[in-house]
Amino acid sequence: MFGQDFLKKAQEMQEKMARMQQEMAGMTVTGTAGGHLVTVTMDGHNVVLSVRISPDLLKSEDLSMVEDLVAAATNDATQKVRLAAAKAMEEITGFPGGNPLGGIGIPGL
């Protein structure tokens, strides 16, 4: 049913995907918030590796502000991982964002 060429291309894509997953695991990104008062570093699988909070920020008595900045820095780092993954998938698949359905507004795609 499927030609030899199709199977070869599928195997090549599988190999590229495995390499991409290894590269993503080895990458790190840093998200920031509050003018770099909070930095969150995570790997390419969205695992938080470190959180740094400026001592100046800790002098503040506004705990909710600190919590908001940690959340914002984490979200910033997560977005950077998401963009790196989309770029890598685009290189593999040739589709914008790596998704052939990406432009039609289907949630999660």
Notes on the protein architecture:
The protein is an alpha+beta fold. The protein has a domain at 25-95: Nucleoid-associated protein YbaB-like domain (Ybab, Chain: A, 2-Layer Sandwich). It has three helices and three strands. A three-stranded antiparallel β-sheet has the order 1-2-3. A hairpin with a 4-residue loop joins β2 (38-43) and β3 (48-53). α1 (4-26) runs antiparallel to α3. It is elongated and about 65 Å long.
Features:
single chain; 109 residues; alpha+beta; Ybab, Chain: A; three-stranded antiparallel beta sheet; 3 helices; 53% helix
Structural topology:
Elements: H1 4-26, E1 28-33, E2 38-43, E3 48-53, H2 55-58, H3 63-93
Antiparallel strand pairs: 1-2, 2-3
Helix pairs in contact: 1-3
